[in-house]
Amino acid sequence: MSPRPPSASTPTPPSKADKEMLFKGVTCALIGLVIVLAPYVARSGSVRELMGQVAAVGWFALVLGAAFIVQYVVRRVRAGAHRQ
Questions:
Q1: Cα distances (Å, whole numbers) of residue 9 to 78, 83, 84
Q2: Could you give the C-alpha distances from 74 to 7, 30, 36, 46, in angstroms and in order?
Q3: How many Å apart are CA 84 and CA 82, to the nearest integer?
Q4: How far apart are CA 5 and CA 23, in angstroms?
Q5: What is the average per-residue pLDDT within 36-60?
Q6: How far is CA 31 from CA 4, 20, 28, 39, 77, in A?
Q7: pLDDT surpasses 60 at 9
Q8: What are phi and psi of 46, to 5 degrees?
Q9: pTM (2 decimals)?
Q10: 17-21, 29-33, 34-38, 79-83: which has the highest mean pLDDT?
Q11: Could you tell me which residues come within 8 angstroms of residue 6 by beta carbon, excluding any fewer than 6 positions away?
Q12: Cβ–Cβ under 8 Å, residues 34 and 7
């Protein structure tokens, strides 16, 4: 009995590189989000001032994380398109 080929509707499992890219994207985005939102939720004036000064770093991390997530989604869509 020969093994059945996977159906076209079955998604391919993500590779290790894809999983790592998604992990990096989520991690960077979360770090960026915390840094960007910290000045608005900090109770201490000194912490609010410090986090306000590093807002550019937070935005960079947020954009970088979003780019990693978009690249992960593009890879997954392409992997699905190649199967059909």
A1: 14, 9, 9
A2: 21, 21, 27, 41
A3: 6
A4: 30
A5: 88
A6: 44, 16, 5, 14, 26
A7: no
A8: -70, -40
A9: 0.75
A10: 29-33
A11: 83
A12: no
